[in-house]
């Protein structure tokens, strides 16, 4: 019996490969609606968090980027949300930012995805760090280790300077993206 | 920043700041298993670097031209592991034919490389970080050099430790892990040096 | 082959202590160190690995006679990778937060030496019921070891267990415990303690 012939080996591997691909196609089709629903849900919750006054969200495309415009009941635009990502300490950080274009300040930020160290960098998702950005005017921020004394200062999470400053940089980038798309000043 | 500078930074960032073994926890098995002597550690490191560089390039090609082009994300793990297993096989045959001397020194490590999670980890990180083709190759090479650095350093320490008076219960695995912990602390000093 | 209950129990018990994958065989170290920073992660990783281990041992022991010897390892890896993809999509669909915190280490179950090692040393040589018992024991052995390690790290590193604050405000968390350095040192000390209790751990250098 030629059990170890090349033909038998190729047939075995190909058969396993094909069965595996077929099974996984089913798994993919079964789970993908749930996965997309989860992502949609996270995004909706994040927009709600960064634009608390908005009653209605409009998705618009400007400069080939997607923005979420929030309107209140009387049809006034209360703010614009934008999703942006960048490198963190361990991997990409994805965040949602809501800004008030008229007042030229940040309303709130929300972290969607990150891979930072639990107990350290992961604390960028906590209110203590995120509140740094509430009501901050547009521009460049300085990351400091002590409670901020100037408007443009952002206090880093203790022991996680890199996660904090990278997040701050993503926020800066997001702000300038929104500014560019909406023809804002600076 | 020019593209070249970025690649240089990516390389050094991968070797020191995000060292595969000590920061990302990838490739711990060979790190503990094949670090008794500097010479063998070096062999393992070089063989791994070689495979990692090729994996970096191959993964990018497969991911861009097959998986993304045909929209088959669910076959990512299966296809990456096949690529790695075949690459290792190919490298083994190639070295065996071209350089028997090299084969003699690296040959025994090659089969171990397929199940080294640093290689699959590398393959998975490439689509996640969105590198270019050259970026992926440099990333693979840097990861391999970082792996070699950590494993050779560890082997050097363990060779010295042979003559040390280690308490009985700590002998072998425990003391190796504690040394690894101290090395990881030392590598924490690099964090923030380069941010990619 | 007749079912021998005594043998099944000994196959099952083997992985719990005598050949515990983490404390005795010292294999599967990457996920062991990487995801044990919180107990939730440790438990989820243990269960995910156990699922892949049990399913692939069953499949391998069922089809072992059909696989030619030379492509044994690639075939096992393919089977394992299929189950891992399943677990990954399942977690992403129904437990998105766990999937996010384990991230890269779910796919890396593919190359966990424990799983491939058991196919090679056990499932490929033993009937289905014994393979199942072995996989169950090894899976539980792996899971409890991960839980113990993550309990120590989370308690000292964050003062909590399963995310619930246990230690009060007086406790200053030892941040090093949740970092890579703390992972290595904690595991080193735990293995040393296990060495005091039983015989010394054997470092399985062959890995597969």
Structure description:
Chain B: One of its GO terms (cellular component) is plasma membrane. The complex is a heterotrimer of chains A (186), B (196) and C (208). Chain A has three helices and seven strands. By secondary structure, chain A is an alpha+beta fold. In chain A, β3 and β4 form a beta hairpin. The model of chain A has no long low-confidence stretch (mean pLDDT 87). Chain B is an all-alpha fold. Helices cover 74% and strands 0% of the residues of chain B. Chain B is built from nine helices and no strands. In chain B, α3 (38-68) crosses α7, α3 (38-68) runs antiparallel to α8 (133-161) and α4 crosses α7 (117-129). Chain C is mainly alpha-helical and 208 residues long. Chain C has one domain. Chain C has eight helices and two strands. In chain C, strands 1-2 form a two-stranded antiparallel ribbon. The relative contact order of chain C is 0.20. Classes of the chains: A alpha+beta (186), B mainly alpha (196), C mainly alpha (208). Chains B and C meet through α2, α4, α6, α7 and α9 of B and α2, α4 and α8 of C.
Summarize the main sheet of chain B.
none
Biggest sheet: strand arrangement of chain C: 1-2
Total DSSP E strands of chain C: 2
List segments of chain C where confidence is low: pLDDT < 50 over at least 5 consecutive residues. Answer: 204-208
- What's the pLDDT, averaged over the residues of chain B? 88
Q: How many helix segments of chain C?
A: 8
Brief write-up:
The complex is a heterotrimer of chains A (186), B (196) and C (208). Chain B has helices spanning 3-17, 28-33, 38-68, 76-98, 100-106, 110-114, 117-129, 133-161, 173-188. Chain B has 9 helices and no strands.
